[in-house]
Structure formats: C-alpha cells, structure tokens
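It is worth pausing here to work through a concrete case rather than discussing structure prediction in the abstract. The textbook approach is simple: state the sequence, then state the predicted structure, then interpret. We follow exactly that order.
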Amino acid sequence: MHKTINRLIVLTALQILAALPVNAAGPQIDKDSGLIVAPGFEEVKKTCTVCHSPMLITQNKADRDGWLEMIRWMQKNQGLRQLEPELEKIILDYLSTNYGPAATSRRPPLEVTFPE
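Step two, the predicted structure:
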C-alpha cells in the first residue's frame, strides 16, 4: 500500500514539474566576447572592447549611475572619448539591464549586541 502511495506521489510530482515552463537556454552569450547578446550589444562590443577586455564588463555589476560613474572615470583618467548622447544612452541601457546589481541570497548581517 505504501509503495502505491509513494509511486503516486512521485508520478504526480513529475507531472507537475513537466508542466512548469523551463528557461534552460538562458541569455544568449556571444562566443567571441562572452557578452550577453541583447539590444545594445553591438555598440558596447564596438565601443568598450577597443580599450579593454570584455571580461572587465562581465565581472562588474552596477546600476545605471554606477556604470555612468565608470564611464566618466574612464573619460577623465583613461582617455575615453566623449560619447554621443544617443550612444551613451544605448550603452548605459545595455550595461544596467544586463550587468546590473545581482540579487543576493545572503542574509543581512547580524546585529551586533554587547552584554550590559
């Protein structure tokens, strides 16, 4: 009797899992650069990888303001040219969408308390 119930539970679970949508493919990655292929990809590849490895992009995560700060730093300290406003917008859209801050699964730090 228990075997029959266990089999029924397993079969039901498998049917439920089979019905769930699966996005196994994930984002498409450019084989040459390792960058995510999405709107703005070509502009980022052409503009940014002239001076540095695409790994410098993929290893960083920032919101739009953070990416803009990095661009301004490169312009001030590394000789990056002034970007046309539309190109800068495309690049910032791409970077903040595809390389934005990642959600973390870490718990918040514990509150430090001292005995009185």
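Step three, interpretation. The domain at 41-98 is CATH 1.10.760 (Cytochrome Bc1 Complex; Chain D, domain 2). DSSP finds five helices and no strands in the chain.
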